[in-house]
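user: Here is a favour to ask of a fellow structure person. I have my own habits and do not want them to colour yours. Could you put it straight underneath, so I can go through it closely?

assistant:
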Amino acid sequence: MAARHTPFVIRLKDRTAEQSETQGVEVSIDPGSRHTGVSVFRPHDGTRYGLYGIQLDHRGGKIRDKLAPRAAYRRGRRSRNLRYRAPRFANRSRPDGWLPPSLQHRVDSTMN
Protein backbone atom coordinates (compact mmCIF):
# COMPACT_ATOMS: atom_id res chain seq x y z
CA MET A 1 0.00 0.00 0.00
CA ALA A 2 1.40 3.37 -0.99
CA ALA A 3 1.68 6.09 1.64
CA ARG A 4 -0.54 9.12 1.08
CA HIS A 5 0.88 12.62 1.08
CA THR A 6 -2.03 14.08 3.07
CA PRO A 7 -2.46 13.45 5.94
CA PHE A 8 1.23 12.88 6.63
CA VAL A 9 1.72 9.70 8.64
CA ILE A 10 4.84 8.07 10.05
CA ARG A 11 4.42 4.35 10.54
CA LEU A 12 6.55 2.89 13.34
CA LYS A 13 7.26 -0.79 12.64
CA ASP A 14 9.59 -1.47 15.56
CA ARG A 15 6.90 -1.53 18.28
CA THR A 16 3.39 -2.77 18.90
CA ALA A 17 0.33 -0.66 19.63
CA GLU A 18 0.55 -1.50 23.35
CA GLN A 19 4.11 -0.17 23.52
CA SER A 20 3.11 3.04 21.74
CA GLU A 21 0.59 4.31 24.29
CA THR A 22 1.39 7.78 25.59
CA GLN A 23 0.12 9.91 28.41
CA GLY A 24 -2.66 12.39 27.71
CA VAL A 25 -1.85 15.43 25.63
CA GLU A 26 -3.64 18.74 25.02
CA VAL A 27 -4.01 20.32 21.60
CA SER A 28 -4.28 24.09 21.38
CA ILE A 29 -5.32 25.94 18.21
CA ASP A 30 -4.81 29.68 17.76
CA PRO A 31 -6.73 30.77 14.62
CA GLY A 32 -5.58 33.82 12.74
CA SER A 33 -6.33 35.54 9.47
CA ARG A 34 -2.98 34.71 7.83
CA HIS A 35 -1.56 31.97 10.05
CA THR A 36 -2.96 29.38 12.45
CA GLY A 37 -0.85 28.12 15.32
CA VAL A 38 -1.24 24.54 16.53
CA SER A 39 0.58 23.32 19.63
CA VAL A 40 0.60 20.06 21.56
CA PHE A 41 1.18 20.14 25.32
CA ARG A 42 1.66 17.53 28.00
CA PRO A 43 0.28 18.50 31.42
CA HIS A 44 2.38 17.44 34.41
CA ASP A 45 1.90 18.65 38.00
CA GLY A 46 -0.04 21.74 36.96
CA THR A 47 2.57 22.77 34.36
CA ARG A 48 2.17 22.39 30.61
CA TYR A 49 5.22 21.17 28.71
CA GLY A 50 5.25 21.90 24.98
CA LEU A 51 5.81 18.93 22.69
CA TYR A 52 5.16 20.39 19.22
CA GLY A 53 4.44 23.77 17.71
CA ILE A 54 3.20 24.17 14.12
CA GLN A 55 2.35 27.27 12.09
CA LEU A 56 -0.06 26.86 9.17
CA ASP A 57 0.12 29.54 6.49
CA HIS A 58 -3.23 30.25 4.82
CA ARG A 59 -3.86 31.05 1.16
CA GLY A 60 -6.92 33.21 1.83
CA GLY A 61 -5.42 36.30 0.21
CA LYS A 62 -4.40 34.36 -2.89
CA ILE A 63 -7.88 32.85 -3.21
CA ARG A 64 -9.46 36.30 -2.93
CA ASP A 65 -7.03 37.68 -5.53
CA LYS A 66 -8.03 34.94 -7.99
CA LEU A 67 -11.78 35.41 -7.46
CA ALA A 68 -11.70 39.20 -7.99
CA PRO A 69 -10.66 39.10 -11.70
CA ARG A 70 -13.36 36.50 -12.42
CA ALA A 71 -16.00 38.89 -11.10
CA ALA A 72 -14.47 41.73 -13.14
CA TYR A 73 -14.65 39.62 -16.32
CA ARG A 74 -18.34 38.92 -15.65
CA ARG A 75 -19.06 42.61 -15.15
CA GLY A 76 -17.13 43.38 -18.34
CA ARG A 77 -19.24 40.97 -20.36
CA ARG A 78 -22.33 42.83 -19.25
CA SER A 79 -21.01 46.19 -20.48
CA ARG A 80 -19.62 45.04 -23.85
CA ASN A 81 -21.57 45.33 -27.07
CA LEU A 82 -22.57 41.68 -27.00
CA ARG A 83 -25.76 39.92 -26.18
CA TYR A 84 -27.27 41.33 -23.04
CA ARG A 85 -26.18 39.51 -19.93
CA ALA A 86 -28.29 40.76 -17.07
CA PRO A 87 -26.89 40.56 -13.55
CA ARG A 88 -28.16 37.45 -11.83
CA PHE A 89 -28.59 38.07 -8.16
CA ALA A 90 -32.19 37.13 -7.32
CA ASN A 91 -31.74 33.40 -8.00
CA ARG A 92 -28.86 32.80 -5.61
CA SER A 93 -29.40 30.93 -2.38
CA ARG A 94 -26.55 29.76 -0.22
CA PRO A 95 -26.73 26.52 1.75
CA ASP A 96 -26.70 26.49 5.52
CA GLY A 97 -23.18 26.75 6.91
CA TRP A 98 -21.83 28.47 3.77
CA LEU A 99 -18.56 30.35 4.18
CA PRO A 100 -16.66 32.48 1.66
CA PRO A 101 -14.00 30.43 -0.19
CA SER A 102 -11.08 32.09 1.61
CA LEU A 103 -12.59 31.33 5.03
CA GLN A 104 -13.64 27.81 3.99
CA HIS A 105 -10.03 27.14 2.99
CA ARG A 106 -8.87 28.32 6.42
CA VAL A 107 -11.25 25.92 8.18
CA ASP A 108 -10.42 23.00 5.87
CA SER A 109 -6.63 23.43 6.11
CA THR A 110 -6.80 23.69 9.91
CA MET A 111 -8.93 20.54 10.16
CA ASN A 112 -6.64 18.61 7.82
About this structure: The helical segments are 60-79, 101-111. Residues 78 and 85 are 5 Å apart (CA to CA). The chain has a mean pLDDT of 81.
